[in-house]
Amino acid sequence: MTRGSTLPAHRLSHLSGRLAIPAQTRTSPTPPLTSPTPPLDGFNTAPAEEAHHTLLTCLRSLRWARRIADHRPYPTLDALLAASDEAAYDLTSGDLAEALAGETLPPLPPDAYGAAHMALSAAQAAYEARFGHTFVICLDAVPAPESLDHILGAIRSRLTNDPEDERVVAAEELRRLARQRLLQLL
Description:
Layout: E1 19-20, H1 39-45, H2 48-56, H3 62-70, H4 77-89, H5 93-101, H6 114-131, E2 135-136, H7 147-158, H8 163-185
Helix pairs in contact: 2-3, 3-4, 4-8, 5-8, 6-7
């Protein structure tokens, strides 16, 4: 499975709700001044609070971040991702609410027109009114030019879910976002 582009995260002030999409980073690597430490080694040996803080940038659940940080060291990136998945699957309703509250709203593509802003605003407002929390979606396999249509289609489709089914879908999207963000960090 190939990973697609995502939209950079930020808050659109005219929308009352939030829509979570991972930040898109396209920075060129800066050459290190000294010999580099493999990213997983750096994560494994970082002080607990630093690791915890780093993990909270991937998923804003205190329990999830503590669980991942407390079980270091991880022998491989796959082991870390498996632990992340397991911890995400174990999110309680409270953990899920906490993680959803920490998500931010993405911008629309620069060439998006006003009607797209209105459509996204209306869809997000309907979603938040129905479920009482932020809409989250992971766009790891969606080409950037298709992201807006994908987001709008997903919101409209998920509006038909009952609240418990949508909680399960939102939890899965958060798990995928956390996994994608960990991969971007490491």
